[in-house]
Write a structure and sequence with these properties.
44% of the residues lie in helices and 6% in strands. It has 332 residues and is mostly helical. It folds into three domains: 1-74, no CATH class; 77-214, Transcription Regulator spoIIAA (2-Layer Sandwich), CATH 3.30.750.200; 231-332, no CATH class.
Length: 332
Amino acid sequence: MTDSAAPSDSPDASLSPDAPTFHGLKPLAAKRERELQEIFGEGGMLARAIDGYRSREPQTEMARAVAAAMDTHDTLIAEAGKYADRLSINIEVPTETSLKTLAPEKDVRAIRRTIGRLRLKLDEAQENASDTRAPRFAPAGQSTQMIVGADAANDRTILETSANLYGSYRLKRVYYSAFSPIPDASRDLPLRAPPLLREHRLYQADWLMRFYGFEAGEIADPRGDGMLPLDIDPKLAWALRHRERFPLDVNKASREELLRVPGFGVRTVERILAARRVTHLRAADLARLNAPRAKALPFIVLADHRPAPALLDSGRLAAWLRPPPRQLGFGF
């Protein structure tokens, strides 16, 4: 007996008699397969709704895996990694207390366990990378996301959580998303969104941790309220708090020291290191290296330049370096 001739008390009884048959499948599995084809197959719901839609077996296979996971309450890590370049398991908010308050149905320990299992899968795939027969698995790694401004966590707490995630699970990225209020939301949520510039400063600070050698605890002023200043970028803010480390001799300083000079990006520092092997750098050389001089000059010494001590010690230096309003950018 084929599935299309199922008796009236069968799970397939409500299906159309001209639906495709799936021999060898149990009735419930056959019903699920027909439902998937009705959505993803040629002439299915997506094909009728989207011009030019083409049914793709990997897409259907992923949906099949999702359906199976819903039946068995299993995770989808292995299946999702076959089809996605990068996987994201969102931590949502930076503290366990906030997660319990704002999303009590979620468990931060379960989230971290899943991130850890994904890390093991990624490590296994990397070990098998030389085997051409091994299936691909999320080649761009894993990321996560935190909502900024939904709770009372300050920027230092957010950055410390990110640093922990980077160190514990070797994430590729932590994404920051400014909270946006919605009507009729929980009373535990704020009524106003945080400044969008706060999200931008967190991305800049995150960049400092990943590529510039900064620790989370030193980026936000440990003596202040734990928030990043909005009017200047976090590296400039750090330099102004540590003026005793400047001015720095560009012709002698280490790579790690040069990376802390305001205005010097990673590529600028690499160009400086290469150039000073053959010449003693002067102010004009920085221009030829496309190094942003205006922000850097108060903090550096060159063969023909030394900032006046009064300038570095001046309380007006921050105001002088504060950029005018402009399109957001990293600006290091």
